[in-house]
# Entry
Amino acid sequence: QRRIQDVRLVYTPPKDLGKFGGDIDNWMYPRHTADFTFLRAYVGRDGRERPYHVDNVPLKTPTHLRVTTRGVKRGDLSLVIGFPGRTSRHVTTEAVSFLTETQVPMALQVLREMISRLNAWMRADADTRRKYASLEAGAQNAYKYYQMIDRGMKQFHVLETKSREQKRLLAAFPPRSAGVRNARRLLAEIAARYRGLRGYYRRLNSLIWISGWGSRSAAMAYDMVAWSIEKQKTNRMRKKQRYKDKNVHYFVRSARRFERETNLGTERALLVFFLSRNASAPKGQRLKALDVLLRWGQRRLAAVKKEARAKKIAFEAHFEALFGVAPAKTALERAVAMMLGETKLIAHGSDPASIKAAVDLRERVFKMRLPELRKLNDPLLSFAAALEGERRAIEEGPHRQITEHLATLLHPKWVAEVKRATYPDANSTVRLSYGKVLDYTSTATKREHRYITDLRGVLAKDKGRFPFNVPAFLKAAAPSANKSPFADKEIGDVPVNFTTTLDTTGGNSGSPVLDKNGDLVGLLFDGTPEAVISDWLYIAKDQRSICVDIRYALYLASLAKADALLREIGVEGR
# Structure
C-alpha cells in the first residue's frame, strides 16, 4: 500500500447538491444526493510520496479504474470494493438481547430528551439556534438511526432468528459430545460477560455522552486530559482512533473555534441535563465524577458565601459577579455554573482580548502533560480529569471482559468452533461484495420505487431552501438534460442515484461500484432503512445500498465547464 500525503481538491458540487435532502433523506429512498468529490493525488517528481510541495506532480499509475458512461440497468451485476467497518452477524443471542433491551432503548431515551430540550432552547434564543443547529441535526440523525434499528429488529425478528440458529447449531452436535459441551460452555461464558456489562453500562454510557458530543465544553476539556496521557504513547499503542496522530488536528482545531460555536448558557444547560440524568442512577451506576463535582461545588459555594459576608454584599450579587449568572436552586446547577464561570479555558464575554487569551491557553494546554495540566487547578480540567480517570478505569477494568476477552477470545472461538461461518464479520479490512441493480420496495409503506432516480426528481423536491434547494444553474440546464451525453436513454434524463443489493455497512461510503466489466459506474454512499440491521442480519430481498450514478457526477462537472477534468477522467462532456 502507498500512503499519499498530498491530496488536493479538484471539484466538489455545491453544498445544496452534495447534501441534498440532508438528514431528512438520510437512510431513505428515492434519493437525489450528489455525494461525491473529485480529488487528485500528487507525489514528488521522482514518483515517491511526500507532503505538499509546489513542485509535486500528479500521480501516474500503471493501472486505474475506468469510468464508463454506459450506466446501469435493472438486473445488472454490481460489485463494490471497500473497507466495511464492523458487523455482528455471528454474535450470540446474548449480544442481540443486550442491544434490543438495553443499548437501543437507552440511546432513544437520551436522544429524545436531548432533542426536546435543544429545540426549546433554540426556539427561545437566536444565538443558540445558530450555534447548536448542527448538534440538534446530529442528534436527530442518531435518533432516526436507533429508531430504525429498533423497528428493524422487531420487524425482521432478528433475536428470534438468532435464537433458532443457535439451537440449530447446538443440535448439529452429537448429544453429550465434547463439541456440544464446548458450545454450551462458550455460551455460558458469553452470557456472563453480558450480565457483567449490564451492571455498569449506564455509568459508561453517561461517561461517553458527557465526554463526547453531549457537552462541547466538557468534551473539549476531556480531550485535553486524554491527549496529555495518550501523546506519551507511541502512535501504534494508542487504542482509540481519535488520538491517533492523523486525527489529533480535529479536536485541536475544534477547540480554536469554541467561542464561535458555543454559548455558556446552553453549555450549562447541556451539562446539567446529562449529569442530572445520572444523578438518580442506582448504586454502581452513578458517576463518581458527578460526586467529585458536587463536593467541589459545595466547598466553592461556602467560600463564595464567606467572601460575600466579609465584603458585606449580597450573596446573590457576589455569585453573579463571579460566575456571570445568578445562583440556581439546585446544587448541581450551581456547581456547573461555578465551574464554567471560573474556568479560564473559556472566554467570558465577547471581548477579543478575552477570547484570544482563552484560545492561547487552550493551545498551551494541548501541549502539556498531565502533571502540568493538574497544576493549573482549573475546575473544568479537574472535572474532565475525573471523567477521564473513571472512564479509563472502566475501559481498562471490567469492560476489558467485553472488548478483549469476549471480542478476541470467546466470540472468535464460537465462530470458528461452533458456527463455522463461511465468511468473517467486517473489521475494516478490504472486502469485495457483489449484488444486482434492482428496484426497491419499502417494507414500511409497501411502495415500490424504480432502481434509479433522475434530475426531474431533484427538481420535484425543490423548496428553495436547505436541504431541498436546487441551484439556479441546475434549474436552467434541466430542460435540455435529456440531450446530455450523460443522460440515460431508458429514463430520458440524467440519472442521479441507483439501488443495488450490495451487502455493505459503515465504512463502505465512497467505495467504487463496478459493473460486470470492472468499470466504474457509481459510488456507494448510503442504504435504505432495512439496511440498518444488516450489521446483524443480511436480507437481500428487502435491503438496498444507495449509490451515486457516476453520470450525475460527470454531468455536474460538465455544467461547471470542467472539460479538462472530464478528459483526464477519460470521458467527453460536450
